[in-house]
């Protein structure tokens, strides 16, 4: 089913929404060259008006409007089965507040080694699961002093307890690219795009133009 490129506004965002950003500039091009995706940045909504993200100056909170103005366009993903619960939202905000207050930084070295680490994780995952279930290998702690942008998002889902300890062996926080987040429904279902300007066109070959939207899923559930 084609979603016909649904567009939303910043005022339709909710706490916990995952934002995948297409940006311009040298760093964005470097990420695209490395990952093969135009989605070079990610952020998570702290509330309906603010986001938190890992960027070059560290872990920062800013308004959703500022992020939107700095992006060509943004793909929005929402997991209502997590963030409709006030306790999870409070836990998310507490997790992000601690990251900001602890002056957590952007992990440049981790960003440079992401694709190699991602490939290694896929090759060693079976061995890690064996060690976890038979020998007690502990998953990584989601609370860190350094993150890359996508790592922070995965850490949020782990830190609030939605990704359980056993699953955290698989969901190793520092092995996800921004685009990976949009391909795993753990992090949400596609809601729509936010565009910086009305004249910006979403390419027909964008990674998410063919996604079934969250609204379509919810309507199907109502009529089932």
Question: Can you describe what's shown?
Answer:
The chain is an alpha+beta fold and 224 residues long. The protein has a single domain (10-223), classed as endopeptidase fold (from Nostoc punctiforme). It is built from 10 helices and 8 strands. The chain has helices at residues 26-35, 64-69, 80-83, 86-101, 108-112, 114-135, 149-159, 165-170, 178-181, 214-223, and strands at residues 18-22, 39-45, 50-55, 58-63, 73-78, 105-106, 146-147, 189-195. The strands form 2 sheets. The protein has a 6-stranded antiparallel sheet with strand order 4-3-2-1-5-8. A two-stranded parallel sheet has the order 6-7. A hairpin with a 2-residue loop joins strand 3 (50-55) and strand 4 (58-63). It starts with 17 loop residues before the first strand and ends with a helix.
Q: What's the number of structural domains?
A: 1
CATH architecture descriptor text:
Alpha-Beta Complex
Structural classification: alpha+beta
Helix and strand pattern = EHEEEHEHHEHHEHHHEH
What portion of residues belong to β-strands?
A: 15-25%
Query: Average pLDDT across residues?
Result: 94
Residues in helix, %: 40-55%
CATH hierarchy, class:
Alpha Beta
**Low-confidence parts:** none
Helix segment tally: 10
Query: How many β strands by DSSP?
Result: 8
The name CATH uses for the topology is endopeptidase fold (from Nostoc punctiforme)
The whole-angstrom Rg is: 17 Å
Large-scale geometry? globular
| Strand order, largest beta sheet | 4-3-2-1-5-8
Gap between N and C termini: 17 Å
Biggest beta-sheet profile: 6 strands, antiparallel
